[in-house]
Amino acid sequence: MTATVELDGVGKTINRKEIIKDLSLTINEGEVLGLLGPNGAGKTTLIRMIVGLIDITEGQISVCGHNIDKEHKEAMENVGAIVENPEMYPFFSGQKNLDYFRRMDKGVTKEKVAELVDFVNLTDRINDKVQDYSLGMKQRLGIAQALMNDPKVLILDEPTNGLDPAGMQELRRHIRMLAKKKNVTVIVSSHLLSEIELMCDRIAIIKKGELITVENVKEETKERYQFNVSHPLKAQELMETHYDIKSQLMDDNLVIELPPRLDDVSEIVKVFVNNDIAIYSVEPIKQSLEDRFLHLTAE
Amino acid sequence: MTQLIINEWQKVFSRKSNIIIMVFIVGISAFFSFIPLLFNNEQAIETNTYGENWQSEVSQQVQTLQEEAETIRSQEGELSFSDSIIASTNEGEVQRLSYHLDKDIEPPATNNFFDNLVGASSLNALIGIFVTIIASAMVSKEFNMGTIKLLLIRTQSRSKILTSKYVTTLLLSLFYYGLLYLSITLFALFTTDMNPTSEYVFMTTEGLYDHTSFISYFAGLVASNLVYLVIIASLAFMLSTLTRNTTIALGGTLGAIFLGAGVTNFLVSKTELAKYLITANWSLEKYLPGRMVSIDGLTLPFSIIVNVVYVCAFVGLSYYVFNKQDVLS
Q1: CA of A86, closest CA in chain B: separation in Å?
Q2: Per-residue confidence (pLDDT) for residue B44, from 0 to 100
Q3: Backbone angles phi, psi at A154, to 5 degrees
Q4: Going by C-beta distance under 8 Å and a sequence separation of 6 or more, which residues neighbour residue B150?
C-alpha cells in the first residue's frame, strides 16, 4: 500500500484563531477515507488546504509525493475535487461547463467528457442550463468535473448533500468502484456518519480542528452484554475472583465485556445459575459507530 | 493560455450585460450620426460641398457673409439677440474660410466625415463606463459564484488564471472601442460628406485655426482614448480582485471617473502634488494639437510615466493579492 495523501503536523491559523491544530494523517491508495465532524469542525478548511486553496500555517501536505505548496501543479495533476458546493457556471449548460474545464486540463478528450456524462447519468439533461438543475444533478455534474483528469485522489466535500436515497446509493457504488477497480484514493467529508459509513474504509473524526481518532469501519467491536440479576454485587465478585473478568455495575445491572477466551454467554449464565443468582434478563449492548461518534464529538 | 482566454471570452459573451452593452454602443453610434441630419437641415443645405473651382466659390461666400455681418453691425441702436448671433456666426465662418483659402485647403462640408469621427471620441467616456461594468465583475464574480475554487484546483497557476482574466478585460475594452468606431464609421459614410482633402482644420483653444494631417490627429485621439480605457479597466480590475466585491469595484471606479476631474481641480488649487494623481493624467487628449493643458507642470512624457506607474501598481497589486490570499468563499 502506497500513501497518496500525507498530512504532517498540519495547522491553520486565521486571525489568530487556530482552525486546524497539528493534524497528521496518511491516506493510502485505493482507500476511502471519511472525514467526519460536526459543522464548523474544520473539515472544509482541511480540504481547502489539501487542494491548495488556502495557505498552510504549519506543517506540510503532499499529494502523490508532491508538496502542495511548492509543487502545486504536479500535485494537482493527481487531484479531482468538489469543494463545499458543486458550483458551476449557472448560465452555461452542463456540457458547456464540462467543455470549459476540459480546456483547462491538458489531454482531456471530448470522448472522455462524453464518457463521464454517461457515467454520472446526465446524458438526457446535459444540454440544459445548470441553473435549471436540481442540487443532485449539480452534485453529479461536479463529480464528472472532478473525474475529468483521471485523478489518483478524489476529494468530495459533503457529496451526499441534495442526493436522494437512490442517488446516494449510486454515489456509494461509484466511489467503491473507483477505489477498488481504479485504485483511487477517495476522501469524503460529512457531518452525518450514516451517510458515509457504508462507503468508507476508515473514518477520521475531527472536532474543533483536532483529529480525535481514526476508526476502521470494518473493525469488530468488543461485544458487551448487560445482565439483570438478583444479586449484582455477588455476581460481580464472582466474575472477578473466579474468572478474572472485570465488569461494571450500571443501574443495578451488570455490564460484562466478553473476553475472547470466554465468548459464550451461556457459560456465564451457567455460572450464575450454579451460584444461585437469578437472572432476569441478558441483553447484548450494541454500540454503533454513530454512538461512538456522538460520544467522541460531544462537548 | 489561449484556452483560458477563450474560456473567459465565452463567459463574458454569455452575460446579458455584454449583449446590452453591444446593442447600446451600436444604438448610440446611430443616434450620434443621424441626429445632426434631423435637427440641422437648414445649415447642412446652406454650406454644402464645393465644386472644382472651390477658391472662387469660397471667396464669394466669404464676401457675402462679411457683407451680411457688416450690415447687421452698422444698424442703428442695440442689436437684437438673433442679429448678434448671426453676425458673430458669420464672422467666425469668415475666419475659418479665410484660413482655408490662406492655406489652400478645400473646406469640408459642415457635417463632414472627419468632424464626425473626432466628435465621436466624446462617446469614449461611455465606453469607459461599460469597460468598468465588465472589469469590476471579472474576478469578484467568480468568488460570488464560488466557481473560483474550480479554477484554482486545477493545474493552472493562479498567475495564469489572473493573466487570462486581465488580457480578456483589455481585449474586451479594445473590442467595445472598435465596435464604437466601426459603427460610427459605417453610419458616417451615409450621413456625412467625405472630406475633400486629408488635411484636418481645427480651432485651437485660443480661438485661432490650425491644421494637421487627419490621420496623425485621429491616431493621437485613438491612442489617448485607448490609454484611458486601459487605466479604467486596470483600476476596476484591481478593485475587483482586492475587494472580491463587484459593487465596491464598480462604485469605486465610477466614483473616480465622475469625481476625478472635480477633485483633481480642487486639489490642484491646494497643492502642486495633485499633478501626480492618476485622474490628472489619464486623459491624454489635452496634448492633442490645439488643446490646452490646464494644470501647471504637466507634459506628455510626464503623463505617460505617471500612467505607466499607476497601471503597473494596479496590476502588480492585483497579482500579489490574488496569489497570496486564501480562498474561503
Answers
A1: 9
A2: 46
A3: -115, 125
A4: A87, A88, A101, A145
- Residue A258 contacts B, CB cutoff 8 Å: no
Asked if A51 is an interface residue toward chain B (Cβ–Cβ < 8 A), one would say yes
pLDDT for A169 equals 83
User: Is B212 in CB contact (< 8 Å) with chain A?
Assistant: no
Closest residue, chain A, to B325 (C-alpha): A54
Of how many residues is chain B composed? 329
Backbone dihedral angles phi then psi of residue B210, each to the nearest 5 degrees: -150, 165
Residues of A in contact with B7 (CB under 8 A): 100, 103-104
The per-residue pLDDT of chain A, averaged, comes to 83
Low-confidence residues in chain B, pLDDT < 50: 44-45
Q: Which residue of B has its CA nearest to A155?
A: B153
Residue of A nearest to B160 (CA): A104
Where do the domains of chain B lie? 2-41+111-324, 49-106
Average pLDDT over residues A72-97: 89
Q: Which CATH architecture has domain A3-216?
A: 3-Layer(aba) Sandwich (3.40)
What is the architecture of the domain spanning A223-295?
2-Layer Sandwich (3.30)
pLDDT band of residue A284 (cuts 50, 70, 90) is confident
What is the reported pLDDT for A286?
64
pLDDT digits (tens, 9 = 90+) for B285-318: 888 888 888 878 888 999 999 999 999 999 999 9
Coil, strand or helix at A24:
strand
The confidence score (pLDDT) of residue A289 equals 66
* CB-closest option in B4, B147, B326 to A87: B147
| CATH 3.30.70 residue spans of chain A | 223-295
> What pLDDT does B46 receive?
52
Give yes or no for A102 touching B (CB within 8 A). no
Sheet strand arrangement including A279-285: A247-250, A253-257, A224-229, A279-285
What is residue B210's predicted lDDT score, i.e. its pLDDT?
84
B153 and A81: CB-CB below 8 Å? Answer: yes
Nearby residues of A16 by Cβ (< 8 Å), 6 or more positions away? none
Count the Cβ atoms, other than its own, within 10 Å of residue A112.
Answer: 17
Specify the domain boundaries for CATH 3.40.50.300 within chain A. Answer: 3-216
